[in-house]
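Researcher: I'd like a structural prediction for the single chain below. Treat it as a standalone chain; there are no partners to consider.
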Amino acid sequence: MTGQCLPQRGLCVIAVLLAVSSACAHDAEGTRETAPRLVKGQRLDLGVRLTDGRWLELADLRGTPVLLFVFATFDTVSQATLTSLRPFVPQHPNVIVVGVAAQPRASQLVEAWAYALDPPFVVGANPDGSVENGESTLGKIETVPTFILYDADGYEVARRTGLLSEADLARLVAPLTGN
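Model: Treating it as a single chain, here is the predicted structure.
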């Protein structure tokens, strides 16, 4: 009896390994690289409520490169990133920088965050929760802060996560700004 079960177990193990490896291969194809891609990514189409109450359709910003700074109000790395963004924003007037809070109850917290830290760019939240749930055109945000660069036509061309220096930000936008 044991001799008969062993080949079946071996086949089961092989079947499980094949299923897992094919699932892993599929997942790897679906994830976004953090390096610039030659093929344009998702087109920017998202509305955010700004801290001053205005509504901003990011698709209306087409014609100019847009750098989205996706952050969480409670995240210390997101807060530390403002050190790099403060000099970057005025030095790159040809890039529109927009902060988008990606966390539960973002609309309730982003105004206080912006008031306390006074970022040099507009900040808002997506009130329907699609950003933090990974259901917006930004896709799933795995880590904050995340920077997503869109070209003048509104297509994603680069994505970076983590604490970026001022020089890192300049290198990120250089292909679109000619610097």
